[in-house]
Amino acid sequence: MRREDVTERGESSAQPSGRRNLVDHVAQQLRQEILGGISPPGEKLPSENGLTERYKVSRTVIREAIASLRADGLVEVRHGVGVFVSAAQSFPSANLLATDPARISSIIEMLELRTAVETEAAGIAAVRRSPAQEEAILERCKDIDRALRGGIATSEADFAFHLAIADATNNPRFKEFLELTGKKMIPRSFLLDHDDEAAAANYIVQIQAEHRQIAEAISDRDEQAARAAMRLHLTGSQQRYRSLIRRSR
């Protein structure tokens, strides 16, 4: 029996089922690494065998995933040498990352992009953060608490908290991504009904509880918990905005 057949049948049940889903899963993981700056322009990707071992999939799946990235212009194949992150690949510009605050759908699009990047950042930060970076994350979380107690807007402190996590990845691309989006990545005012101060306060308290879960997981060096907490935080925001769209119809 060929090795590919064995690998194809032995792919982890935790992975998406079906070859097409596996290809999409692997391509998405590699795409996040490239766009997040983990694999910078010009860097050689692991060998085909290396990627096969990493993702526990067949060589066919890896080849199709690489072909997808190549079609997107993210990688270039140098025959006999390997696969490299495209040197022409540049980080998205501020215009590309701009949102239209008048369109809730535009905000959801940004949140989906943030979920892909910041979930990865939280996991990496849990592994790589230094004691000083851990302290900075916890302190930024306390800053949000102080803003809450003082009755002042928390958006700026919220943004600083996410920046501290990006900084703790020790990969400058993550922080650059957030800086490109700017403070508008916390478009909180659209969710708050200023005619109902109690509801607004409850919403902020809920968000802050999610922040604490993220900070504690990173502090505990729990990579999986950090990813899960960040994903829950940002997908929850997506659902809140989708609720606004439904109510507006």
UniProtKB/TrEMBL annotation:
Q: Where is the signal peptide?
A: none
A family per Pfam: FCD
Residues covered by the HTH gntR-type domain: 20-88
User: What is the protein name given in its UniProt record?
Assistant: DNA-binding transcriptional regulator, FadR family
One GO molecular function term of this record is:
DNA binding
Q: Which terms are listed as keywords in the entry?
A: DNA-binding, Transcription, Transcription regulation
Taxonomic superkingdom: Bacteria
Membrane-spanning regions, if any? none
The residue ranges flagged as biased composition, category Basic and acidic residues, are 1-11
Region annotation (Disordered) ranges: 1-22
